[in-house]
Amino acid sequence: MTSSPHLSDAPAPPPPRPNLAFRELRGQRSPGEFAAAVRRSAREIGERVSCDARYIGRVEAGEIRCPNYAYERVFLHMFPGRTLADLGFAPRSVVRGRGSRPMVPAQHSPLHDPQHHEESDVRRRAFMTGMTGSTATVAVAALAPFGTAPQQTPLDRHPARAGVGAVEEAIRRIRLLDDRHGGDGLYRRAAAPLRTAFELLDSGTASREVADRLQAGAGELAISVGWLAHDSGRFDDARSHYAEALATARVAGDEALEAHAFCNTAFLARDAGRPREAVRAAQAAARVAGRLGSPRLLSLLALREAGGWAGLGDQRSCERSLARAQALFARGGADADPEWMSFYGEAELEGLEAQCWSALGSWDRAARHARRAVALQDPHFTRNMALYTAELADDLARAGQPDEAAAAGGRALGLLRDVRSSRIEGMLATTARVLLPHRRASGVSAFLTSHAESRR
């Protein structure tokens, strides 16, 4: 496929404005030395970030306008008393397209120049629409469950180079929105940037370095879109996206991407009622990941395998996998931990173990782990908080504790005001059915009424 003639005719936007404030904080340290300091600070507060010299360079170049939540916590820990704005970053609401752009007077810091906000959004919005004409409809807002009306903007003169940053930004954006709102409502809109990413690859106009980054980004984006399909109950679509990511990883020889694709395939297979496939996929992921130097990744893969064994009713194999997951998790974070694993902390470890015991019918044990997951979860992962609370409600209901189950179910329903996830909604529907024989209890009755209203 050749690149569209419209693309070569469009004027290129100016480059990102450097983050001078962040560069000043680095001082005399090299980007690599500063990245090592970031990783040390992350370990001090129990965070996991895969920070390297390249990441620092992208921040200082202005390519990363606002860090993800994990990096935000690390930076604010490193520089107490400062805000993200003090570090030269744009407000998250602006980056996410949810707020109006501040009209900063010319004498204010160039780090908050509205022209910089505009040009950066132009390239990202253009990418996320696709390459279908001389102009493209702004689609960043469409990825969010709320936003401003679309506008029109020209595409970049060099789509491959601009597309790399846009692909990586799209991945971060999708993960951020999923953390907050779940997969329903995001999946259809997220499919457009995925198509464009592979079109950019097919154009063959990029240098080898850009093509490698684009290939990795396209694969990760396929996984992100696949997860949105998975979470919204579109299992066949999810399977197709994960297979696409796996094929991309194999072509590129990208072991990290291959492990990620197998990891998600194992999770999907468990949820789709194919537990033996879940075991095989998790084991395949572990074989690849064993060369990547990330005990935390191996821990998550052991949990994926445990979920498959639980689905097969093999408690002994499940317990072995759980023990391996806990031992690997206890080794702590490493520089090689993938960025996409920012969700995997103690709460997720407890939540996935709860799901294993639930599949094995050990309801009391499952409820204990689900309760820990809720207590440990970082509140900004709204979707996971809703998931663990729904898991707790179901485990308590099946363990013969209807009042506590109804209370947890009510809390989960409250969280679903901001989260759209067919998976979580299905769990609560099952809990409601289990609690029906106890509907005369006041707490249970209130939950059942609220649940029925939420479905309407």
TrEMBL record:
Name the source's superkingdom: Bacteria
Which residue stretches belong to region Disordered? 98-118
Instruction: Kindly give the SUPFAM superfamilies that the UniProt entry links to this protein.
Output: TPR-like (SSF48452)
The record's listing under InterPro entries reads:
TPR-like_helical_dom_sf (IPR011990)
Know the name of this protein?
Tetratricopeptide repeat protein
Naturally occurring in which organism (per UniProt): Streptomyces tabacisoli
